[in-house]
Amino acid sequence: MSGYFLPIGLVVAFLIAWFLPEPGSALQQMGIIPWMVVTIFLVNGYQTVLSQMPLSGKLWTTAIVAILINLLISPFLGLAAASLLALPSAAAIGLIITATVPSTLSSGIVLTQLAGGDGIKALFLTILLNLVGIFTIPFILPAVLDNVGTLDLSPWPLLKQLLLIVLLPFVIGMLVRRMLQFSPRHWLIRYLPSSCVITTVWISISASSETLREISLLLIVNITIAALLLHGALIALCLASRRLYHPDRAEWLALLFTASQKTLPVAIGILAALNQPIGVALVACILFHFMQLLVDSLLAARLVRSAAEPDTA
């Protein structure tokens, strides 16, 4: 059931926001969204035990490859996909922001384990990408969005925002774990981050409901195709990297399902910081999230079936 909680919750959030946007719009005016992101990373820090991190072998090479693919190359792939599909500026902004943010906080780890990969290494890569992303996003995102030509985005306020809503809560969460005996595997801890993502989407869609009603089916199709192109390109880079430095299968699967994925709450947090209507951009973020879950779930199932085959890579 836990694997379906987030996608089902996102659909329910969309329906409620579509038909009854007033409560969510009121919460958006109160500035709730950044606190949802803070809660997610507070819980993520609470669940993290640095002593469990396997800091040896080729993992540092894998980490460098993950940073290159997920944080440095991906934003330009997002720009290329948006340009290829000739997306309007609002949709392009959403796709590019999605391409710039780091890996998902949970689904990449879960899919790594389902495919027979190393979950601990996936956790390490996820934490690393999210922490390094704090310092890459503020400088890469304005440079890439400059090609869209609609935003004048300064890196320093964005860096401050990410430090406050990502790094600080993460560190506090790790410190709190030293003082509390509450199990990090408790159902409340496990479901709280996903609940915050669902709440964030509900609030964001509610606040942009009028804009969303004007989106055409053709635009939704084009955004979906652009999202699939972006995610497919990231997967292709992960596949190519295996040929270059030959990690073991379990570690490579950790790379595949972390470096190719993107986190929704950080993308929404950045959109909220832009202080402008985010309806169409939010649709691009959510569609990418759904597409990556669909594609990677099918990919994980395929990899499980092929696990017994000889590794000829």
TrEMBL record:
- The domain of life is Bacteria
What Pfam families does the annotation carry? SBF_like
InterPro entries per UniProt: Na+/solute_symporter_sf (IPR038770), Put_Na-Bile_cotransptr (IPR016833)
Give the record's keywords alphabetically.
Membrane, Transmembrane, Transmembrane helix
As recorded in UniProt, coiled-coil segments are: none
Keyword Glycoprotein on entry: no
Q: Which residues cross the membrane?
A: 5-21, 27-47, 59-84, 90-111, 123-145, 157-176, 188-205, 217-240, 252-272, 278-295
Name the record gives this protein = Bile acid:sodium symporter
